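User: For a reading group we're discussing how well predicted structures match intuition. Take F-box protein PP2-A13. Before you show the prediction, I'll give you the sequence so everyone sees exactly what went in.
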Amino acid sequence: MGAGVSTYVGTGEETNGGSVPNSSKPSLGDIPESCTSSILINLDPPEICKLARLNRAFSQASSADFIWESKLPSNYKFLVTKILGDEQHLQNLSKKQIYAKLCQPNRFDGSTKEVWLDKYSGKVCLSISSKALKITGIDDRRYWTYIPSEESRFSSIAFLQKMWWVEVVGELEFEFPAGKYSLFFRLQLGKASKRLGRRICNVDQVHGWDIKPVRFQLSTSNGQHSLSECYLNGPGDWVHYHAGDFMIQNPGNRPIKIVFSMAQIDCTHTKGGLCIDCVLIIPK
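Assistant: Thanks. Here is the predicted 3D structure of F-box protein PP2-A13, as structure tokens, for the group to look at:
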């Protein structure tokens, strides 16, 4: 490719009659915009943005609505309405601006949930804060407390001190594009903090999680179900525990309701030292 480009952008070409002026030689800027757009539409968004810096022709072509509409998920109008609260914003924004806006972390439902697009694939990702979950005993400070954390997207996490019955339930009604999605609980055993600039994790209150496994469940309004069990481990590290997968085949611009939970309700022993950050829903 380098040799081909150099024949167009060289300093001059010798002919029998002398050198040809640069102005008469073809260059990348002479490629028709329709051809440039045909190239860009087959690239990932970050690659499109890189080529847009190449010259004016690529810059102009890279802003074409039909290019960015092909990168947006099928539910982008729903997302704009969910985030901005008014579909009228669609009329004031180009498709490129909409894509850029949706790639940012966008809060909704009282800032307890966050949605964004993967900037490479344009696929939808979701995060649900611990404050959006129904946690048994959360209002009793003898059992649970919310503590600030720089390691959370939402700046706070739920910390369990000691309890017999641990149950966490969440639900979400959302419009997803077609595809397969996985749901994870982001959990940690132990309470992390910083001392002299270094991360430390206090695991003194961690107990009871090695006796019986935690049960994770997921169900959807269109009849999908998932059930799994595993022991919580890895004290001091955030771990993503897989609760299940679900499939969206024919979205048809219809929201789907998802109910998910984690529980360890064996009352023969207490459990403690658990941090709950959030629930993640990401493309499979």
